[in-house]
Amino acid sequence: MPHRLTAALTRSRSLVQRLQNRALAAVGAAALGLLAGCATVPSSAPVEAAPSSSGTASGAVVSAPAASTHAAAAPAAQGAAGTAQAAAAGAAVASGTAAAAGGPLAPLATAESQAAASRAVATLQPPNDLWERIRRGFAMPNLDTDLVRAQEQWYSTRPDYIQRMTERSRKYLFHIVEELERRNMPTELALLPFIESAFNPQAVSTAKAAGMWQFIPSTGRHFDLKQNLFRDDRRDVLASTRAALDYLQKLHGMFGDWHLALAAYNWGEGSVGRAIARNQKAGLATGYTDLNMPNETRHYVPKLQAVKNIVANPDAFRVDLPGIADHPYFQTVEIARDIDVALAARLADVKLEDFKALNPSANKPVILAAGTGQILLPWDNATVFERNLQAHDAGQLATWTAWTAPATLTVAAAAQRVGMSESEFRTINQIPPRMMIRAGSTVLVRRSPQQKNDVAEHVADNAQLSLAPEAGKRTTAKGNTKAAASKTKKASAGKPGPGSGAQRQAAAKGPAKPQARQGSSSQASAKATSPASKPAAAQTDVAKAR
User: Fold this and answer.
1) How is 313-336 classified by DSSP, letter by letter?
2) For 396-416, how does the pLDDT look when each residue is reduced to its tens digit (9 = 90+)?
3) Which comes out higher in pLDDT, residue 447 or 474?
4) φ, ψ at 485 (rounded to 5°)
5) Which of 110, 178, 191, 436 is the most exposed place for a label (fewest CB within 10 A)?
6) 424 given a catalytic annotation
7) Which of 196, 334, 353, 422 is catalytic?
8) HSE-CB of 87 using CA atoms within 13 angstroms
9) 483 close to 506: Cβ distance less than 8 angstroms
10) 388 Cβ partners below 8 Å, 6+ apart?
11) DSSP code of 519?
């Protein structure tokens, strides 16, 4: 019996050894075949381009360079690919070896088929235009309600309005899409400025919200948007887009839902949070359509959904979207000296209104290098600007500069100190009548040819104009008012007119309280309004919690 057991064990060891040898041979053959197959890949084979961090090259297909260009790198790459394929084959063989005790080995894939599989490339066509690129990035859940259909009807029956909005958007849309893709955010959000401002960076609401993304002053400061005498970053294309996407990401992190995040962007995160808490306490659902919210916020997401649906399938709504190429409209150009806005536009060979559309944050006719270190120019005009700037030999680039009032002064006194007429000084600094300039205020003044220094950084970033009423004129006006009242009192003593008792009662009650407003504030560029609300209007006063 021991002898027979020993013989059986010997035969088993021999079988296992033969299986192992067969597996090793198969792995070696597969690896050699793979290397041979890779070596025959033609140099013109299509290779899928790796997407950039911003998504610009996503899906692009390019031709590989000639084999001689990468002659040294090719063996290493092929060896790595062969090693990976060999490892996979080895795993398959090992699995077959383990199963051999119970049945025959499974056939191995041929080296030729493995090499062919290694050459397979998934070819993706690049988007035809920017609209197609936006469609590919849609990732938000669709909202299907009667409010959406009403907004679809409103937009689709106003082709001129859509044309104006989309024409304005072509300057900014590519940059917004790039930023969204870089952050892995839904590209529907690139359409949000259509709702907020109709893509008008100069839009200002009655609640003082400004820019494409409609930031009120306090929220703008929270997201580091400078607002001073010389610039308002709420209107800046790059800065406001960065702040808006930061805010939207924060809101999505808070609520975990894009529709609720958008409601909070419009109504305020605190308001949405309280509405959710009320529904939770009442045992109700807490989705966007379940919350009790102001009319403006109720229509906010349906407007965006309607624009999304039109962009997704314009033919279904008989809308003709103007073509927008999928490449940058502008590029940034660094500036090292203060420069007049008009001169910068002229050096770039750009119309003044187009220059202002790309650089809408400038509050004054001069751009201060210490505060705004770069300007935006159409792609082809950037080189023109740099060339003309180098050739410009007229000396200084700015005819305006900043001046700080050493004491509280009248407008006439301040204008005299800086050598300007009172009317020009008042107009350029937008100072109303009967107001004085407080000490420490910064104003814009003419720059003399002898002045070589540009405005300092602390002034460019923090300049503010503070005004005070002219005390003498105010006192005189009060005196005149008192004298007139005394004469009226003497003339009418003992002669109460009809209804004077009711007037006294009304005076005792005080002024009537203003009614709360929740309607949309008109937006600078919008010229048509929807039956429910204004689709392109800036946000409501109640929505300005942000």
Assistant:
1) -GGGGT--PPP--SS-SEEEEE--
2) 899 999 999 999 999 999 999
3) 447
4) -65, -40
5) 110
6) no
7) 196
8) 5
9) no
10) 347, 348, 349
11) S
Mean pLDDT over residues 202-217, rounded? 96
Residue 39's pLDDT band (cuts 50, 70, 90)? very low
What are the structure tokens assigned to 497, written together? 């007119």
In this structure, the number of other CB atoms found within 10 A of the CB of residue 389 comes to 18
The tokens for 462 are: 């923090």
Q: Which domains, ranges and CATH numbers included, belong to the chain?
A: 17-35+76-123 (no CATH), 130-317 (1.10.530), 330-398 (no CATH), 399-477 (no CATH)
Cα(81)–Cα(118) distance, rounded to whole angstroms? 8
What is the residue whose two structure tokens read 């009614």?
515
Write out the DSSP string of 347-368: HTT--HHHHHHHSTTB-SSEE-
Q: What per-residue confidence (pLDDT) applies to 468?
A: 95
CA 394, 395, 400 angle in degrees (round to 5)?
Answer: 105
Q: How many residues does the chain have?
A: 546
Pairing assessment for the beta strands 366-367 and 442-446 based on DSSP bridges: unpaired
The tokens of 298 are what?
Answer: 């109720």
pTM recorded for the entire structure? 0.67
CA distance 404 to 393: 30
